[in-house]
Amino acid sequence: MPKKLMAANWKMFKTWEEARQTARELVVGVRNDLPPDREVLILPPFTALRGVSEMLVQQESFFLGGQNFYPADQGAFTGEISPDQLLDAGCTHALVGHSERRHVLGEQDDFLAFKVSFGLERGLRIIFCVGETLQERKAAQVEQVLTRQLVQGLAKVPGDTGPGELAAAYEPVWAIGTGQTAGTEDIQEAHDFVRAKLSEMFIHGREMRILYGGSVKPGNTPSIIALDNVDGVLVGGSSLNAETFSRIVLA
Ligand code: PGA
Predict the structure, then answer these.
(1) Is 98 among the catalytic positions?
(2) Nearest Cα residue to atom 7 of ligand 1
(3) Whose CA is nearest to atom 6 of ligand 1?
(4) Is the pTM of this model over 0.90?
(5) Mapping DSSP to helix (H, G, I), strand (E, B) and coil, where does residue 210 land?
(6) Is there an atom of ligand 1 within 6 Å of 234 CB?
(7) Residue 245: how many CA atoms within 13 Å on its side-chain side?
(8) How does DSSP classify residue 173?
(9) 4-249 belongs to which CATH class?
């Protein structure tokens, strides 16, 4: 059984000092009670990566990740950040394909495919996000959308990629930041489907982690995390406060 990954996506929130303070409180709040089968990942804004990484020194089960990167080593890509720059700031992980990158920033499946393979080659552990919109769910297209996102987005990833290198996150777009969590039956169905796809595509697909994201809160975490094929959570709004996120991590 892989360890459950409890991930905090701080998006475009927090100054350098606020991020350090939250990370400090989080470490103090959970380190003595963290079950051996849990890991914590913090995804701060880029400006706070280095500051937060200093808070995580020698904290064995805590990891740092980037919310995004550009698939090039260096160059004239104004406003972008490279995998090497993330690694240099202390990151081990990075998100690819978050719904806000897909829907607000317009990132397409073929570009995401390039990002995933590039990030993996540079040594980042990738969490690849997928999920349907409300319109797609209403049109009964969930499996079709997940298939397209997984098959196209992971098309360039070698079939023997290690289980620790690649994880998926199922985040129904209509549940992100809306307070409307998917029901446990919907989550179970989607996670079983993602598991089946990963198992088809990768030798280690059965051991890769699949996180759930979308309005995760302390109150709904126990029932979500207990489901089969749910190997962690990706939390936005409820991860911004250290005390609230501590309750999720320990739920
Ligand atoms: P939320 O965000 O927890 O605020 O719904 C989740 C995410 O975007 O990863």
Answers:
(1) yes
(2) 236
(3) 236
(4) yes
(5) strand
(6) yes
(7) 29
(8) G
(9) alpha beta
